[in-house]
Design goal:
Chain lengths: 253, 253
Amino acid sequence: MGTTQLESVPEPKYWHLKTVLNDALDSEFEVGEILPNERDLAARFGVARATLRQALEQLELEGRLQRRRGVGTTVAPPRMGVSVGPSANAWPGAGRDSWETVGCVEAVAPAAIAALLGTGRDQAVHTIRRVRVMRGQPVAAELLYVPPASVPGLPGDLSPAAHAPAVLRELHALELEGEDRAVELGSARADDAKQLDRLPGAPVLVVTSRYYTGGRVAAASVSTYRADTCRLTFGDAGAFEVTHHQQDTRQAS
Amino acid sequence: MGTTQLESVPEPKYWHLKTVLNDALDSEFEVGEILPNERDLAARFGVARATLRQALEQLELEGRLQRRRGVGTTVAPPRMGVSVGPSANAWPGAGRDSWETVGCVEAVAPAAIAALLGTGRDQAVHTIRRVRVMRGQPVAAELLYVPPASVPGLPGDLSPAAHAPAVLRELHALELEGEDRAVELGSARADDAKQLDRLPGAPVLVVTSRYYTGGRVAAASVSTYRADTCRLTFGDAGAFEVTHHQQDTRQAS
DNA sequence: GAGTGGTCTAGACCACCCT
DNA sequence: GGGTGGTCTAGACCACTCC
């Protein structure tokens, strides 16, 4: 029959649009520059606004664009390398790590956290809420869980303001023996989104950490990183110093 | 004035829909069970199909659902814990790690990879394409780059079939001194998507690794993991053995 | 061919930011 | 108030899978 089936896979419009815009961002725009609004862009490319938005959403997911309601769409800077690896970090809150404590309560943790800690179901744990800031931007919201058993020397009468520092101080006095970590994709809950200056549902990288001492889990944390602006770095050798976008590091084989 | 402004923040429909569906998945469905089709679901909830799809997309992003064109929407099992940490892995390809080599060429790497390796711009490197399989499913597509300088003992006359094993064998003979790693969110390119059994643009976790020997970068890799089905684990203590979804580990403070 | 999810359209209104 | 992105609608057609 000899049916030549070249071009038999029509590329979706939004996909083609995305590559066109991606190339344009490289060649015709500077970081921080604002793009034309969505209605104009859609008209210029001859597509519906929803189709254009599909392309913009992907580019935002990949960290190429930043969109803010009421303001506009701007070209995003390269992602920040954020160290979450072992070594330098040591105990959470140690070192000058640009974390800000937002709140601290002693409450019963959800079942999944209790499983992480290996504590009983209904046991209260110290719960510290913190925000990580880099270059003036919030990059992560975290909940740090510390069972009372891990900080036996903690005074009983603590003002809310003194609570978190005291727990962290006691924690740092222990010897850190090891760390566990997991990363997965999630979407920002309303409270995290607010602290990350994003809308609810924004894509985030959820980092779950366990800190060991004496063969037991002394603390655990769940950190929610902005997926659009952050590249998480692990490893003893320190953060990458790469100035390229991840797309550039991938090619067909 | 005393204007009570309760409920002044109307939740988007798709967001409310998402939580309703999420709860229903926990209580009324089993893993692997197929949901009603999108048109029926939309009608049942009294919303447009596009609105329902927005909710389904988020749930798929969070690993709760799996959708396949022409088939339907099913309830996804909990994400697989995939170890990408140091230690056990050692050199890429060492150990019984369920990687399958798909191809191998010697070609000039893109500029970003050359920067990662610290090699010259136009230098050819061994490029090995591999796929990682777990529980019968492809979970990652990888490109492993090895400069010829790292494998000086490599024979010159290699058949395509013998190329990749020979490069890996030479690599494993070196002493691995350290590893660097970074994780960021991306969307699957067409070629990766095909090997991951997903559509182009599907969300992926891109892991960029550098392997050191003799104080230099001996190899580098870019691995593309399915974000919907994988939870990446790091750490010396081995993979987490958590059976909960990440949503369950997060709560308001 | 019937049924599924994926793409696309052309509109509308809303929430938010700025001036 | 005017402009931006965010949400929502009610349709249509396409690509794919399975019977």
